[in-house]
Write a structure and sequence with these properties.
It is a single chain. This protein is an alpha/beta fold. The chain folds into two domains: 298 residues, 3-Layer(aba) Sandwich (Aminopeptidase), CATH 3.40.630.10; 136 residues, Aminopeptidase i, Domain 2, CATH 2.30.250. Helices cover 30% and strands 24% of the residues. It is built from 13 helices and 22 strands. The strands form five sheets. A nine-stranded mixed beta sheet has the order 1-2-3-13-4-14-20-16-18, sandwiched between helices. A six-stranded antiparallel beta sheet has the order 8-7-10-5-6-9. The longest helix has 20 residues. The radius of gyration is 24 Å and the shape is globular. The two termini are 37 Å apart. Bound molecules: manganese (II) ion (2 copies). One manganese (II) ion binds next to loops.
Length: 468
């Protein structure tokens, strides 16, 4: 057999970076520079939502609420409670023939402040935190942290808080034990070495000079917060404040082939989906970009994928494209729709080869990763895409030079994970997971290959352009 024959017959996954022309590499690097800047600014779901609305408006999208009728080529978006966005470009086909959805989540693992967070101990003021999503707690100590969020005041106004991002801003941190005194801690299991209740954020050390005042450091912090933001302690009780890594996303490697940064799960898929939909003009199928919150905690609540919000917006899109709207139009639109569940997967990590099965694991530089099913062990909790859907997506990617690969999240018995795919599938929509494979997923410094980021964008864009 010739090498050519073997190549034609077999599926081989490889790092495709070297195969890109200089012009292609330039395009990949330019796209990723925009991405790097975007995720440096958008570190919370609320911030991502705001930045997304700005991009959409720049690209000619109007608020859905400003329209009563929608026609092919119209571009609209709507915001869900400041924490999610749905954008759509109306297609030439009837909406009851289905829409092409790309759905990503914009929440990431982090430390949230507890409802009553501020206290003083040992002459130091702290915020108590409650971690959000699946974190390895030890990764959050002894690193610079920034505070992002909003305080909702009783009079209905909202105060935005961001400290730790400006060059002259102070940052915050969680302490860890010195090795000299850590014999007992170092003997513990990794998941017990740092407790949730020890993830307290250090805020200050200057007290009041009045000896009768206890907790002077705490009151001094309250005074500073009041001076800067005009808020009091009770305002913290009606706030959503998130503690996130204070550093920017950066190029990684001598060859600058990767991006390192916080919250790439899943903002790398959210950003590429956003860029893809802003490239679309009058598609055949209506293109929908769905950015949701709360995936990291089970997609619960009014801003998560289990909420009726998406269905409600779909009903509006149906009603606004149909003079004689009835419920069947919405039901048909959903049953005939196709969705890429745009979420990250785990790339093969040569430092930890034991958890992956090499033949079924995405690699860095292998392109956009398809995951036919998620779940764990005996496919428990899996949303399984049909072979027919995998074939359709494979054809679109192959015909349009989108480098792609397919894999699973780790070895069968080792673990697993889920995405919003299952909740979209429950709406009677065909779904497959497709996104970027990361290293160090859920850590405060996740890594992605620039080639994979670009191919994910290109794959999403081609998906929107095609009739599934
Ligand atoms: Mn995710
Ligand atoms: Mn995740």
């Amino acid at each position: 057999m010739s090498k050519k024959e073997i190549n034609e017959l077999s599926y081989n996954n490889e790092n495709a970076f070297a195969k890109q022309t200089d012009a292609q590499k330039k395009e990949i690097f330019a796209f990723c520079e925009d991405y790097r800047k975007f995720i440096t600014k958008a570190k919370t779901e609320r911030e991502f939502c705001e930045c997304t609305c700005r991009e959409l408006t720049k690209a000619g999208f109007s608020p859905l609420e400003s329209k009563t009728v929608l026609n092919a080529g119209d571009k609209v978006f709507t915001v869900n409670r400041g924490k999610g966005v749905i954008a759509a470009v109306i297609g030439t086909d009837d909406i009851s023939d289905g829409v092409n959805i790309i759905g990503a989540h914009i929440d990431s693992p982090r430390l949230d402040l507890k409802p009553n967070p501020l206290y003083e101990d040992g002459g130091i003021a702290y915020f108590k935190t409650h971690y959000y999503g699946g974190i390895k707690k030890y990764q959050w100590t002894t690193m610079p942290l920034a505070i992002h969020g909003v305080a909702a005041l009783a009079d209905g106004t909202q105060i935005k808080i961001v400290i730790g991002e400006g060059e002259d801003d102070p940052v915050f941190c969680v302490s860890d034990l010195l090795p000299h005194l850590a014999a007992a801690q170092m003997g513990k299991k990794m998941n017990e070495a740092i407790s949730g209740e020890s993830l307290n954020i250090i805020l200050g050390n200057i007290g009041c000079d009045d000896e009768d005042i206890k907790d002077g450091v705490k009151y001094n912090i309250l005074k500073l917060l009041n001076e800067k933001y005009d808020i009091c302690e009770e305002d913290l009780l009606s706030s959503e404040i998130e503690v996130v890594p204070a550093y920017p996303a950066r190029d990684i490697g001598f060859d600058r082939s990767m991006i390192g940064g916080y919250g790439q799960d899943d903002r790398v898929c959210a950003y590429t989906a956003l860029r893809a939909i802003t490239d679309i003009n009058k598609p055949q199928k209506t293109a929908v970009c769905l950015l949701v919150d709360k995936e990291e905690v089970g997609s619960m609540g009014s801003t998560g994928m289990q909420s009726r919000h998406f269905e409600n917006v779909m009903a509006k899109l149906c009603a606004m494209t149909h003079k004689d709207y009835n419920d069947i139009i919405l039901r048909d639109a959903l049953s005939h729709s196709t969705c890429l569940s745009a979420d990250v997967s785990a790339a093969f990590d040569p430092n930890y080869p034991d958890v992956s099965e090499k033949r079924n694991c995405p690699i860095f530089g292998g392109g956009i990763s398809l995951t036919k099913y998620t779940g764990s062990r005996g496919k428990g909790g899996a949303s399984d895409a049909s072979a027919e859907l995998v074939a359709k997506i494979r054809a679109i990617f192959n015909e349009n030079d989108v480098k792609w690969q397919i894999g699973e999240l780790g070895k069968v018995d080792v673990g697993g994970g889920g995405t919003i795919a299952q909740f979209v599938a429950n709406l009677d929509v065909d779904v497959i997971d497709a996104g970027v494979a990361l290293l160090s997923m859920h850590s405060p410094y996740e890594l992605a290959s620039k080639l994979d980021i670009f191919m994910t964008y290109k794959g999403y864009r081609e998906f929107y352009k095609h009739n599934c």
